[in-house]
DNA sequence: ATGTAGACTGTAGTCGACC
DNA sequence: GGGTCGACTACAGTCTACA
């Protein structure tokens, strides 16, 4: 699977665990909701600054964010 | 420290362990050498696709790449 | 072998709207 | 609540060149 999709899946997974809507996450991470949607669907090549913003908004470190089998 | 600098440091660290020059890495990752230089110096907001390319070129998974204290 | 600069092209990321 | 489209602006990433 492509890295963009893996990232999208991971964000969605963590967002649902935290019981946040895309709108909630977009607000917390100071990003656009339509953008969050396209990232979750693996359509965007997100930058590290925004990955970090999202990780912070989801309450995980980057280390935790990437600490998943699919990133091995 | 800013995330862009952390990424740059991590790339440089791994690159030196592998005893590769910036040119070697740029070639393996199919990126521009001047771009690698600016990323290592924390001046660029690199995208996930290019982080993955670099990780592959350095022989580590994304999980390993981010498995460092500074990403906690 | 690395840093940086300038000019260029492509795309990340914003915003409003509608389904 | 989430997906997507279109128009826009900002910046990622390329390439050449010189220190």
Described by its quaternary structure, the protein is homodimer
How many strand elements of chain A?
A: 0
Which CATH architecture of chain A would you pick?
Orthogonal Bundle
Beta-strand portion of chain A reads under 5%
Largest interface: A-B, 20 and 20 residues
What is the CATH domain class of chain A?
Mainly Alpha
Shape of chain A: globular
> Which topology of chain A does CATH recognise?
434 Repressor (Amino-terminal Domain)
- Assign the CATH superfamily of chain A: lambda repressor-like DNA-binding domains
The SSE order of chain A reads: HHHHH
Helix content of chain A: 55-70%
Q: What is the radius of gyration of chain A computed over CA atoms, rounded to a whole number of angstroms? A: 11 Å
Low-confidence stretches of chain A: none
End-to-end gap of chain A: 12 Å
User: What is the number of independent domains of chain A?
Assistant: 1
Mean pLDDT level of chain A = 96
Give a short account of the largest sheet of chain A: none
Structural class of chain A: mainly alpha
Continuous helix count of chain A = 5
Pfam family, one (chains A, B): HTH_3
GO molecular function (chains A, B): DNA binding; DNA-binding transcription factor activity
Organism (chains A, B): Mariniflexile fucanivorans
InterPro entries (chains A, B): Cro/C1-type_HTH (IPR001387), Lambda_DNA-bd_dom_sf (IPR010982), TransReg_Diox_bact_type (IPR050807)
Provide a quick synopsis of the model:
Chains A, B: It comes from Mariniflexile fucanivorans. The structure is a homodimer of 72-residue chains. The first copy, chain A, is 65% helix and 0% strand.
């Amino acid at each position: 699977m492509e890295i963009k999709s893996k990232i999208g899946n991971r964000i969605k997974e963590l967002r649902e665990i935290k019981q946040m809507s895309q709108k909630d996450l977009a607000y917390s991470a100071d990003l656009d909701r339509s953008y969050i949607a396209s990232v979750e669907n693996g359509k965007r090549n997100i930058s590290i600054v925004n990955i970090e913003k999202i990780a912070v908004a989801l309450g995980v470190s980057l280390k935790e964010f990437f600490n998943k089998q699919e990133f091995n």
